[in-house]
Amino acid sequence: MSTVQKFVFKHNPGTIHEASDALETGDLSSVKLCEGLIDRIDSVDSEINGFLSVDKDQILEDATASDSRRKNGKELSPYDGIPIAIKDNISVKDQTCGCASKILEGFASPYNATVINNLRKNGVVCFGRTNMDEFAMGSTTEFSAYRKTSNPWDVGRVPGGSSGGSAAVISSGQALAALGSDTGGSIRQPASFCGVVGLKPTYGRVSRYGLVAFASSLDQIGPITRDVEDASILFELISGHDELDSTSLPKSNFNYADLHDEFDINSLKIGIPKEFLEVQGLSTDVKGAFEKSISIFKSHGCGIVEVTLPNLAYAVSSYYIIATAEASSNLSRFDGIRYGNRVDKSSDLLDIYLDSRENGFGEEVKRRILLGTYVLSSGYYDAYYLRAQKMRTLIRDDFNKAFSACDLLLSPVSPISAYPFGSVSDPLQTYLSDIYTIPVNLAGNCAISVPTSFDGDGMPIGTQLIGNFMEEVKLLQAASWFESVNDIGKQT
Amino acid sequence: MKFDVIIGLEVHVQVMTKSKMFCSCPNRYGSDPNTLVCPICMGYPGVLPVPNNEAIRKTLLAGLMCECNIALYSKFDRKSYFYPDMPKNYQISQYDLPFCEDGKVVISGKGLSKEFVETKPIGITRIHLEEDVAKSTHFRQCSGIDFNRAGVPLMEIVSEPDISTPDEAYIYLTALKQIMQYADISDCDMEKGQMRCDVNVSLKSPESPTLNAKTEVKNLNSLKAVHRSLLYETERQSEVLEGNGQLIQQTRGWNDDIGETYILRTKEDAADYRYFPEPDLMPVEISSDYLEKLKKEVPETPAQRCARFIREFAIPEYDASVLTSNKSCADYFEKCISFGSDAKKTSNWTMVELLRELSQANKTFDQCPVNPENFAELIKLIDNKTINGKIAKAVFSDMFSSGKTALEIIDEKGLKQVTDTDEILQFVKKAVESNPTPVQQLKEGKSTALNFLVGQVMKFSKGKANPQLASDMIKKELS
User: Fold this and answer.
1) Residue ranges in B4-52 assigned as alpha helix (H)
2) For position A7, what pLDDT does the model report?
3) Residue A5 confidence (pLDDT)
């Protein structure tokens, strides 16, 4: 057991709702809460490396302001003064927003993302910038240009990614909750690897305005938290229609209160996509955890049906065509001309572009830009991009058909649990491990990863619940129920 | 050997809107560089575009004015290329589903070389909507980029290759400009870059069914430059072909100072724009209800208005076409008529005096210091013989510079026309007495002598005598 892990789940308060209660009763102040967490950062983050930066002065200033609001009975919400860690690809005005990339080194965003405005309206304190794979491209956070984040359960292992920093700081007690972003599993997979909860909302429920785009049609901001209740709270705070995001859904507000509506496990029907058990490389431990969660639902009277996602085999390849195509275009703005790092050892314009991008982007980002540029090139568009889009439609249809037979789908999050640094070096193998999370982004549904058990090495394993379009209430109710009845067990 | 000339035009027109295409920055010309910008039009990390519905409405209106089919389902696409004037290094444009397709603009009239072009329809292939790029200015040591223009809504109007002469191109562009002005879509001020033109030109021998390789000439920013570059290109390509040379497809620039085109790039260097659907924007669906409503808002076209002026006001075709060539001119004219001035006289005065004063003062109709009501009053004062035409010109000049009404000036300066015969008689007698030779000549039947004597009367009366009365009275005096 690592020294860091000893603190896991022992921190008090450890969740948004506990902290909110303590603030309400006056047992806790925002300053005290933030100071406690900062102390924790000072003692453990040199080992975890979950944060890229923490502006302590700003945090304590915001916390002080919150405390005085509360003192005067003018708190903005029950969550006034609650600190939330922010992934480094979400814009906070005047704070660095570098996407863990050298090309944006020192870049401070001139505006707030809509999610940040929504949090601030409720008095939430932005609490540090969390590490990630550069521009959210990766599943291990190893592709950060700055540092490797360690898994708090075993610092020799990856925390998952790309929101690995967000998941690791919560899991190691350095933050109550965090915002992450999920393009192909980047919230759910690190949540599963680090033993926390990660929600990817339905595409369009949370504004993307201010999220530095990786793949616009797949990206979605979501909460990473210690429990489902917190995920629901944070989701309520950040969701809703936004005029600044044309793809945001109308009337997309989520009511946290709906979570506590009557829920009857007996009337719930869970679908198990039969292809999910046939996935190559599915580890025995993950399979075991998956079977455990099926049996929990079954034993409590939930209906279990077999469903099929016949086009699952094409999901990963379609995803890596669409996501890289969009990424190659989204990342073209990083040229060193208007902001970010410019390398101008030559006065030739083309050289400035080439040198700035060569120097500014890391290996994985370059790989994906190349791939995306290729699939959009004249003569290849029809063979790749267009076919991938058609496949995406078929996959969406598969989900629609599956949901006509059940309320939610149950699935592993990743075929493997957290692995040692450097043990997976083939990018293709890493891409393939996104098989359970990617289809959800392609279809636009919502899904959540909930801690389920541990593997033989003592690493956490999560289970994924997938909900239909806009059905977060049902999803969170079932997840909350599962969390309450499941005994996660102990690290062995 | 004489070749057939095949010309097609790609015209960019900035759409007049309050804000830019995808953000809320003002869409305005002439502000200090980089003052009308925000994270969105500067392409900062994390921003998203939100389409300007007014720009879409005006694009559809342009399509309806040009008799296009309007797409009920359309979308935006990204066009990728790297250049510092492009904030995102891709431009949000439309690729395969433009808002408007298959229209036409009917042209006729005189081109720049004064040759008359008979009525001819020029097909419109498509009209699509995109965002303008920033404006680059190149200095000796460096280049400057003004992002005020980045994100201004920009229509691209692509014509069929139906144009056969530089004159037709000139007339077509003039017609497009009028249409845009009529529907309040754009002022199309080419000096301000509100209308810019690329031309495609290729030659074909009359016996051969196949075209020779085409040349695209880019960034022509005056009607004259379009005309001149087409003349130049036609000549250049003819010479190559006549010398048994081979033309290769290429893009050329235009040097206005020396009046020549020059090579920019050949087809081999053509960019791959890697178009794909803009994932940040939803497809645009236009309901048939909305389209029907919009059809009712389509204003009269310049051609329709010209025909109506001939019919309604009984003015000559020439007058009507001059008046309607500029929407604000036509508006001004119609306003005057509504105040009861005579149509033909108003037309003459508008075309001659008013246009002259405006051009001398470098003003547009909107800035005209004489409003239509006062202009109509002036014309009515000539009609009811309060002043004569000559004095009216001086009065008008005064009105234009001082902003006073005609009556104010006439009163102030005592310019009222003398129609009192007793008063005129005295001037007539004086003229006859002091000019015996012309009097003798007139008696001998030399009519020019009468003009001289009338002139004398006018002189004595300081221009206020009614010239017709003076003429009649001289004749009577000498009979």
Assistant:
1) none
2) 42
3) 45
Could you give the CA distance from residue A357 to residue A134 in angstroms, rounded to a whole number? Answer: 13
pLDDT value at residue A34: 96
- Per domain, the residue ranges of chain B are 4-289, 300-413, 421-478
Least CA distance to A97: which residue of chain B? B45
Residue A451 C-alpha, separation from nearest chain B C-alpha, in angstroms: 31
H and E: helices and strands count for chain B = 16, 16
Q: What CA–CA distance (Å, rounded) separates A238 from A253?
A: 9
* A103 reaches B (C-beta below 8 A): no
Domain count of the fold of chain A: 1
**Class of B421-478 per CATH?**
mainly alpha
CB contact under 8 A, B78 and A337: no
Interatomic CA distance for residues B63 and B101, integer angstroms: 8
Distance from CA of B72 to the nearest CA of A (A): 19
- Going by C-alpha positions, the residue among A81, A120, A133, A115 that lies closest to residue A201 is A115
Asked if the model's pLDDT at residue B190 lies above 70, the reply is yes
B84 CB neighbours in chain A (<8 A) are 335, 337, 349
CA distance linking residue A139 with residue A143, whole number of Å? 9
What pLDDT, on a 0 to 100 scale, did the predictor assign at position B147?
97
pLDDT in tens, A125-156: 999 999 999 999 999 999 999 999 999 999 99
Query: The domain containing residue A469 runs over which residues?
Result: 1-492
Q: Who wins on pLDDT, B192 or B267?
A: B192
**3-state DSSP call for residue B199?**
strand
What is the identity of the amino acid at A271?
Answer: G
Q: Which of A105, A402, A99 is nearest to A275 (CA)?
A: A402
Q: CATH code at A409?
A: 3.90.1300.10
Give A388 to chain B, closest Cα distance, Å: 13
Q: Give residue B418's pLDDT band: very low, low, confident or very high (50, 70, 90).
A: low
Chain B residues in contact with A210 (beta carbon < 8 A): 46-47
Interface A-B: count of C-beta contacts within 8 A: 95
Positions of A marked active-site:
87, 162, 186
pLDDT of B113 above 90: no
Better pLDDT: A55 or A14: A55
Asked if pLDDT for residue A301 goes beyond 50, the answer is yes
> Of A34-38, A332-336, A480-484, B204-208, which range is least confident?
B204-208
